[in-house]
Amino acid sequence: MSVREVATRRKRNAASTTTLFVAALCLLLTLLASCATPTSGARDRARAQSSSQPGAGTPGRGAASGPGSAALSSGSSSQRAPSSSAGSRSAASSASGSASGGSGGSSTSRSAARATTPGRSTASAGQGTSTGGGTSSGGTSSGGAGSGVAANNGTASAKPADVVNGTTASGQAMPVGDLPGWHQVLADNFGTNVGRGSFATSPYTKRYYGYSGFPDTSRNGSYDPSRVMSVNNGVMDWYLHSENGQPYVESIVPKSPATNWGQVYGRFSVRFRSDQVPGYKLAFMLWPDSNKWSEGEVDFPEVGGLTTHDYIYANRYAAGRTNLAGDTAGFRTRIAAAGTGWHTATIEWSPNNLTYYLDGAKLGTSTTKIPSTSMHWVLQAETALHAPKPAANASGHLQVDWLTMYTRS
Fold first, then answer.
1. 3: helix, coil or strand?
2. Which of 326, 269, 272 has its CA nearest to residue 297?
3. Which residue from 83, 94, 153, 303 could staple onto 115, CB 3.0 to 4.6 Å apart?
4. pLDDT, tens digit, for every residue of 358-383?
5. Residue 28 backbone phi and psi in degrees, to 5
């Protein structure tokens, strides 16, 4: 073999080796890329587990944990029970404390799901400063032809971001469109029927988050949307009842479309009614996205029990409070939530005031220590505080005909 032939063969071998090396390197890079790029399902699970929404894995009263723990969505794989009881608030009389109407009307309960929340007692009786003529003591609403939103001072001017139309079961139309100073971002008339047991896999999971798999504040009830929630004939329904001695309850979080969770400031209206269901209560509220009670809390409407002698009240827990029983201000009514027909409750939350309306009547305005961090809206039904477990045959329905949510415009 000549010197030239040897050189030529060496060049061919080197080229072949280079080609094999490049091919192997490309294959390795392809494998690495496929490992680093999860499937959409894996991405979704990772996003849920590392969600920036508050309190992941520590669901609480008002402090729903977001997608990181038990949720309505059937895709949630980590339903986590609380590690310890949070305790609840007992009602202590105070001339300047929060409002609480009727017997058993202690201020709002906090779910026993948050291990970091100790038990607490709180003042309940007395009203904050009212700028709207004090408390409401008029007759109840039974579904007239009113506007549907208290203090509707103008006509609707724009279609909201998320409107879901349905029937109007209560006889009062759902307001659709912007109001002066407020931009509507959610309006739901519950137009799609969903049977009990199917709510957690229904289209409503896109707009609502539900508590599941842990005890309520009193620890007598258990949150379970599959046993409690349904939608029929334009009404979202909570069926409060017991099975085999276990009371079942539920809390629902309407999600702000812009954040898929809470928002800073807003207008929140809900059209609701309730049967008389002894041993159960309701507490609709705004709760901090951070799950930190020191940022304040807004409760309205709330009642200590679903009976005709437990009256609706509003309450504000101060932003910046340093103890759970801290600074409160609120307003009472003489209107029961249960057995009195349909009612419309509205919270208007702005930088320097909180104003409450019930059936078109202004209850009053709080102007000090107003929460200023992002909060989510919670529609909570649970077992009554400081009371025995509900009787096994106690059952009934809490219903919502429509709800609307606004941001400041």
1. helix
2. 326
3. 83
4. 999 999 999 999 999 999 999 999 99
5. -60, -45
Cα dist from 322 to 65, 152, 381, whole Å:
23, 37, 27
Query: Which contiguous run of DSSP H or E holds residue 225?
Result: helix 225-228
For residue 356, the Cα-to-chain-centroid distance in whole angstroms is: 18
341 within 8 A of 333, measured Cβ to Cβ = no
Amino acid at site 340: T
Sign of the Cα pseudo-torsion (274, 187, 318, 86, in order):
positive
Query: Which own/partner pairs from 6-9 qualify as long-range (CB within 8 Å, at least 24 positions apart)?
Result: none
Tokens of 37: 């790029």
Task: Report which of 59, 196, 50 is spatially closest to residue 115, judged by C-alpha positions.
Answer: 59
Tens of pLDDT, residues 135-175: 333 333 333 323 233 333 333 334 444 566 655 789 999 99
Q: What gap in Å lies between CA 119 and CA 264, rounded to an integer?
A: 28
> Is cis: bond before 390, omega within 30 of 0?
no
**What DSSP state is assigned to residue 107?**
S
> Exposed, middle or buried: residue 292 (CB in 10 Å: 0-12, 13-18, 19+)?
middle
